[in-house]
Amino acid sequence: MPALDQPTDVRVPLDRDALAAWLRDTLGADGDLDVRQFPSGFSNLTYLVTVGDREIVLRRPPPGANVTDGHDMGREATILGALHGHVPVPEPLGYEETGDVLGAPFYVMERVEGVILRTTDDPIDAGAMTRVADAFVRTFAGLHAVDLEEVGLAHFGKPEGYVRRQVEGWRRRYETAKTDAIPDLDAAFVWLDANQPGESGAALIHNDYKYDNLVLDPARLEEPADGVTEAEGGGLVRAILDWELATVGDPLMDLGSTLGYWVEQGDSPALKALALSPTWWPGNPTRDDLVARYAEATGRDVGDAVVYYVYGLVKLAVIAQQIYARWTAGHAKDPRFEHLIHTVRACGDAAVRAVDRGRLSNLYD
């Protein structure tokens, strides 16, 4: 059984005195201050802050980041405030928007303790993994069913033209960050542009929905609650994390982003090396099965899901390419980034295989 998710040593320090004063003035939290940092992630920074016996989680952008788009802390805090009580999310406690306290805006939220499945863990047993996968799909479907008017997010995004903007935008970002010639990825972009799906509707979409953004209940991970279904409140999922990319848009494009992360046992070594979530552990559905379960849970007609998988792959490729370009230019020092060009190539290869074979799974047979 994986251990509860725990922070480690601080890699990017915070101004402890300024933070302690803000917490005291804003939340009435007073006492000895301890700060630790959660270890994973390529983007925003997450800390566990302990004040006396109270545990609080703090989110802030990395140093030097543009605080708009994926680093907009106010946007994250707004989403959590709107969704709390409707879907499993941590409760936001406060937002500092000026950047005067820590050099960048940040927000704090309650800590939701539990298990986060990561590829560095030993696999859980297949039965438990199947329960997690079922909860994963049901929670995803529940998110896409949120009443946007009821939670006050109806005007949060621009759903009209979302598909076109995403396809064109990721191609533009790729051309800006491009460092190497990768014909497969170029071909995938051309095919995607020519095969853009129609709009399927508008929903709140996470845009980064994967296992390592879910906090799981460790007790129910070991044994399901007798006679209690996920929909009745017996779910494994305690919280969905990392809302930095969320917006109102096409839910099937959100499914595509998740498919891009969904690596199977038979996939290429390069894709498996990147795998951000343990989707190939025994008990997981294939990509084809994942789509079928999502369609059943939501009642949505997914149609030919290859286009959404290709979208997820090129999006993942561009994100990896952007980080790799920063590394090659000397703007990023993390040694993990040196090898991301292999991920970019692997995503292009998988996209071409999916198009050529007309399927999502068993692409390397």
TrEMBL record:
<dbReference type="InterPro" id="IPR011009">
    <property type="entry name" value="Kinase-like_dom_sf"/>
</dbReference>
<dbReference type="InterPro" id="IPR041726">
    <property type="entry name" value="ACAD10_11_N"/>
</dbReference>
<dbReference type="Pfam" id="PF01636">
    <property type="entry name" value="APH"/>
</dbReference>
<dbReference type="InterPro" id="IPR052898">
    <property type="entry name" value="ACAD10-like"/>
</dbReference>
<feature type="domain" description="Aminoglycoside phosphotransferase">
    <location>
        <begin position="34"/>
        <end position="274"/>
    </location>
</feature>
<dbReference type="InterPro" id="IPR002575">
    <property type="entry name" value="Aminoglycoside_PTrfase"/>
</dbReference>
<protein>
    <recommendedName>
        <fullName>Aminoglycoside phosphotransferase domain-containing protein</fullName>
    </recommendedName>
</protein>
